[in-house]
Amino acid sequence: MSEDFNMSMRKFLKQVGVTSQQAIEEAMRNAGDTAGRSFEAKVVLTIDGLDLAHVVTGKIEGQS
């Protein structure tokens, strides 16, 4: 793969990671005390023009 492709992909993935973390942290703060709870999380990545539907699932543990 070309260097331009790698850089654009890394930039996109960094943006996804940073903005997703910020959104999760804000939602957890707004939820109040979530200690002892876990939350199912799912991210769906699609790219227009490509036959791509990538799903990542996991759990996020609550906090007090």
**Sheet with most strands: strand arrangement:** 1-2
- What structural class results from the helix and strand content? alpha+beta
Name the beta content range.
25-35%
Shape: elongated
Overall helicity: 40-55%
Number of structural units classed as domains: 1
Cα-based radius of gyration, to the nearest Å: 15 Å
Tally of contiguous helical segments: 1
Count every beta strand, where a strand is a DSSP E run of 2 or more residues.
Answer: 2
Order of helices and strands: HEE
Tell me the distance between the termini: 45 Å
Q: What does the main sheet amount to? A: 2 strands, antiparallel
Report low-confidence residues grouped into runs of 5 or more: none
Mean pLDDT: 96
Structure commentary:
- The protein is α+β, with helices and mostly antiparallel strands and 64 residues long.
- The chain has one domain (3-61).
- The chain has one helix at residues 3-31; strands spanning 38-46, 53-61.
- Strands 1-2 form a two-stranded antiparallel ribbon.
- A hairpin with a 6-residue loop joins strand 1 (38-46) and strand 2 (53-61).
- The longest helix is centred in the first third of the chain and has 29 residues, at 3-31.
- The chain is elongated and about 45 Å long.
- The relative contact order is 0.17.
- Pfam families: DUF6494 (PF20104).
